[in-house]
């Protein structure tokens, strides 16, 4: 009988440090050839985007498919989150579905976890750094949690065009992480103050002037993931060491890199590595304290599948969820 896990159940058992650990393993499997990762299938009903994301991870013994939707008007028109998802986890031996779980919180945590892995390998290692988060929505909160898991932060900064989102971000995350979080009023100020930057907005156009990013900054760009949308301008992409979650996904889905390539500002070879190549040491991570490193995350099914297996194992061990006869 499949186990049914609600968002509350998933929230109870899923912690960022464990998720960073399994997401790192998933990227290693992708780099070493034990992962099966078809490109996600998009369907675009009016007003939204529906993505079908299957993957298999041999070493982790994880097989699953997530259905995730991105509907930008959901918060204002339907009192629902922008991103909604559900995951079907299967037994790789029999193929049977062993768990149906909510994927909303899982998506946010696994997206944070990918940035956590990238930050662990690419950000400067000196202690007492600062993190600047662009966007104060669901994903943004998990970005800060991930960065604070892999680096000892002195302080965090938050910038969003919505004051209400900023207030809720500060109230929730300062107590959760026991860290001082300051509201910032301009993107330029944010760039001047932050050593590690995460962009997690719903904007389809660049959110800051890349020429103002200071030397030594690490950036996790997780927002836009369609060919015509981008959060990052050509200037910052051009002057960064660019690390893709996947070359293929970046060239098919990421306006952040596709638009500068179309403009002729860079070519494909500007993509220095993918995250798996960095983790496995095939390509060097940060080489000095002045480099600007940029991780572009489109979101891969391997992250969902590894996280879903983690959630299932933890829920079974803790007796969380209910078994349902289908
Ligand atoms: N890479 C991945 O794996 C992945 C996974 C899930 C979602 N996403 C993407 O992450 C983004 C954020 O998703 P969410 O669920 O947090 O959405 P959300 O609606 O909860 O939050 C988005 C926030 O961005 C703010 N914003 C919009 N334009 C801005 C700007 N120019 N400057 C500063 N803030 C701005 C909005 O006011 C809002 O508070 C979306 O683009 C979504 O598609 C990526």
Q: Would you write up a description of this structure?
A:
The termini are close together. The protein is built from twelve helices and 16 strands. The chain folds into two domains: 3-107 and 302-323, ornithine cyclodeaminase, domain 1, CATH 3.30.1780; 123-299, NAD(P)-binding Rossmann-like Domain (Rossmann fold), CATH 3.40.50. It has helices at 7-13, 16-32, 74-78, 104-122, 138-150, 163-177, 187-193, 234-238, 247-253, 255-263, 275-279, 301-318, and strands spanning 3-5, 35-36, 41-43, 49-57, 62-70, 83-90, 97-102, 129-134, 153-159, 181-183, 196-199, 218-221, 241-244, 271-274, 293-296, 322-323. The radius of gyration is 19 Å and the shape is globular. The longest helix has 19 residues, at 104-122. Strands 1, 2, 3, 4, 5, 6, 7 and 16 form an eight-stranded mixed beta sheet that branches. Helix 2 (16-32) crosses helix 4, helix 2 (16-32) packs across helix 12 and helix 5 (138-150) packs parallel to helix 6 (163-177). The chain is an alpha/beta fold. Residues 70, 75, 82-83, 107, 111, 134-140, 159-162, 165, 200-203, 207, 222-225, 297-299 line the site of nicotinamide-adenine-dinucleotide.
Which superfamily, in CATH terms, is the homologous superfamily of the largest domain? NAD(P)-binding Rossmann-like Domain
- The ordered H/E elements are EHHEEEEHEEHEHEHEHEEHEHHEHEHE
Protein structure class? alpha/beta
For the termini, the CA-CA separation is 7 Å
Uncertain segments are none
Helix residue percentage = 25-40%
Number of domains: 2
Name the CATH class of the largest domain.
Answer: Alpha Beta
Strand % is 15-25%
Q: Count of DSSP E strands?
A: 16
Largest sheet: 8 strands, mixed
Rg estimate, integer Å: 19 Å
Q: Identify the overall geometry.
A: globular
CATH architecture of the largest domain: 3-Layer(aba) Sandwich
Instruction: Give the averaged pLDDT, no decimals.
Output: 96
**What is the fold-level CATH name, i.e. the topology of the largest domain?**
Rossmann fold
* Total number of helices: 12
Cofactors and ligands: nicotinamide-adenine-dinucleotide
